[in-house]
Queue: 3 jobs
Job 1
Amino acid sequence: MDLRELSWFDGNIFADPSSRLLYSSDQAQPPAFARKFLTAEPILIAQPNTIEACSQLLAHLDKERVPVIPRGAGSFALGGAVPARSGVILDISPRRRVLRLEKEVMTVEVEGGCRWSDLSEYLEPHGLDVFTCPTSAFSTVAGWVATGGAGIGTLKYGYLRGLVEELEVVLPGGPVRRLTAGDPELDLMFGSEGELGVIWSMRLRVRTRQRVMHPVLVPCDDLDATAALVSEACRFSPYAITLYNQARMRIANREHTMLPERPSILVVYEQAEEAWGFQQHLASRGIPTAPRGVASFLWNERFFPIRMKKYAPGMLAADVVVPRHRLAGFLAAAEAAGRSHGVEVFCEASFDTPESAVTIPSFFSDPRDHLGYALHGYLALTMARRAISLGGRPYGHGLWYSLFRDRGEDAQRRRALKRRLDPHGMFNPSKSLAPSIKLSGWNALTRAALGLSSVLLRLNGPLSRSRPVRRDPATSALRKAIEACSSCGSCLSKCPAYIETADERTTARGKLKMAAAILSDRNRYSSAEEKVPFLCMHCKFCTEVCQSDIPLEDVYTELESVLAARVEYPEAEVAAFVSSIESKGLMRALGLAAPALATGAQPPLPRRPAQNNAKANG
């Protein structure tokens, strides 16, 4: 696409190779052959400043028959925001304002790129909070609408759909609509995964903030006993229930050694009386509970569900909703399948209703071992298929689960709406609502292979066991960080450089993806692109929120040394960048400047890499 055609566009446009690389993937790391066959690199990334600019852009792209792929924080792991056809990524992530709080009716209106963590923080001084939120607290509100809306608090307050009073959406071709409870299209936007339009803003209900939560952790002898406790816990109106298998508790103990290494259930109540009632019920049956501090520790880890990724170069998982009465059997089958492949399966199941749980069995793998990783990818798909055979369903579809095509009534209505709103199939094309011929063929072959899973798993197991997952012990901090990064996007939430520039290459996730490409292909990027990572305030916020606990300050030192040996340090650009952030008071507004100065430290300003270091590491 000729960028001169978009000279009228009110917003940011990124069309350089490094940005296109970043936006060609999300949190998932699928096997290389699947990625090469099913995904494409975008033409460019567009970030509209206003809803009018978004509407005008969509009208232009529809006229030119250019595919559009909406994107939030890129934290969905099923490929919903990954281009299946080359087109324009429409990134709403920078549109993150809280627009209006109406305390008298207990609602708040926010832009689609607002993070759940930012919204909760905004509401706190008003004594308010959201009813529910995803475990990825740094994801966008629009992204959670698009991917279904089940998370923390859903057990008590229901899916997000029941809490949203209005959506403002930009439909394919550019029409702007405000959808309310009386509009039949409103329900269909939830779980639509960007195939029906761009969710620009929304109005949702909020509640009085619960200052103290009351977690109860119950270790059990086996998975059956753990699952059986759910119905009993539900008698006391829990806010959230999460079940963990023994391996999941053990991996959480690797650094803290305080959790019981047994299958366990964490039940969280809003009221002390509710928690007390459940504990008394357990005591009457002679069932002990873990100390309150241990339960609180596990509850406080709820926003870091993939922290264990740091222990291996890669991780694969299934993401399914399983009926409660089949949950123990499913988890046991997943563990057995993992053992046959020489991997330990970590299971976490969060109940969305008293009768079902969003369940994620995960295991370590190594994407550098292409054959072993492909075998493990097949194993993850067989776990999802097993859940479906037990009456479950995939939590979402995206690209990687499009083979499990939903044929329910809501899906049929979405497909009909898709045909009406997007007759040319340009909106997030070639996904579950309107798969391409290539994707349909791929899915047919995959389904055929899954039909032979009993045979193939027996063949794959010995081969997989012969390829154990290892992390190279001797490697640089930068290479370790590239492996450990989970691509969760937590680092984007309050990064002052990202908020200032809207350029993901200034974030930890962006820098590490760029570094991986630079270390493997030194001539891929221009000098202008390789200067972008120097735009950093070194405020250390990204280190604080990093799920993988990466020491990012040390990593940046090494990366900047590598870059300084390749390009001239952009002194003027860095000075202008710092001046702009200081003039706006951005660091203080984010709560990042005051703590550093209060301890007597120097202000967290960018540093120029030492030239001798740069030459030594070049």
Job 2
Amino acid sequence: MGSFFSFIETEINSKSAILTDLIGNDENGNFSTVKSMMRHEMDSGLLKKSGYVSGCRTLLRLHRGLDFIRQFLKHVYELRSDEGTSSVCMKVYSKTLGNFHPWLIRQGAYLAMYTLPSRAALLNRVNYKYILTNVYALI
């Protein structure tokens, strides 16, 4: 799909792995719900601890990444078959993830987005029948 979506995939996988590890190593139920995780990290002072990978921050970043994908798929669904996806991706990125990335990261992301294919080519690379029939369940 291109370097941009490889980056997104890597980020989602790494955030999911962090949360899975926190839950898997939790013997006291501190990470059994979002509320208990937030309470535990705040009450224990973990959010300010140097080197600690916060479950709260990780979940927030994962949510932002998934929201980007949701909005991108919604806009791709509305495109004509011959239309490119890069302009839609740039628009969605600037409204979602771009708000939280420094300038240099944003510029690299925009550059990578120029390599995105048309809607038809994108759907041909994935299981487009599944996407077309289930996209509104995802968005």
Job 3
Amino acid sequence: MQALIEMSDGVRLSVTLFLPNVQPAPCILEALPYRKDDMTAGWRPEYARFADEFGFAVARVDVRGTGSSGGVATDEYPEAEQRDLAEVIAWLAAQPWCTGSIGMFGTSYGGFNSFQLACERPAHLEAI
């Protein structure tokens, strides 16, 4: 499932959602600049498996200015990206299919994003 999440400054970020059959469910978030719809689309079966076998909702987000998301990518790990991800977490937690519990994961860029955001302690982020 595809969705666009509007940020407080009007930029819309593209998210691909993999939802489990049993809902509501906790959600795990991966935020990357690696273009989820083409360059890393081959990873989709693994994300579907997280939903189907383990019961997690999974959200993959193209960070600002990359892939299918709007805006401009100004640098690696800019402050605006951290604000965006806090807003994405709030949006995910508010969805009817989500329990309100969000985790983040990733390797390389996504892993570092997870660590940076955990330092900010946004509401609903419960695990990295």
